[in-house]
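ok trying again, last paste got cut off:
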Amino acid sequence: MTKRIFILNGHPADTSLNMALAQTYAVAAKAAGNDVRTQNLSEMDFDIDYGLSGFENPKPLEPTLETMMQNIEWCEHLVLVTPMWWGGIPAKLKGAIDRTFLPGRAFDSRVPPGKMPLPMLSGRSARVILTSDTPRWILSLMYRSAIVHQLRKQVLKFVGITPTRFTFLSGASHPKTGQVDRWLTQISALGRSAR
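nice, full thing came through this time. structure:
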């Protein structure tokens, strides 16, 4: 069964391992017959600062952010490829989320006092491909997988995108010989299976 897949490369640089991973997933997913859209954070021009406008008077979305939100609304499966920097996602990627995941499109805040907002992006799954230098066991044992909880529960599940699965690729800055090829093979398999 084919899917509508949106791949967001969340690395802010023009060239990166993340770019190669996103492209590999896209090629494999398209070859398997899926409808695929991609967007690279490095090519997106927008103000990352949410500012003090509040939910009542948010800044208008720049065209590139509007495209990102339309792609998320369109897709059945979201693939986010991102590095982990200082225990979190890059500031520009966080800014894109801050600016686009707003009431009326990502969640409905018109609920009784004390109730959680209602998600508006239900019916979508996600795959986060996370590159880092931190080994998975250290991320889990020492940092309690904070980035996983943030992305899975506080961001994606909050707006209705669930389940979210993670692929961890550690040692990204100085991979061992042949490691990048093995990662690309792994990501290609995920793309073919649209997972």
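cool. The chain has six helices and seven strands. Residues 55 and 104 are 10 Å apart (CA to CA).
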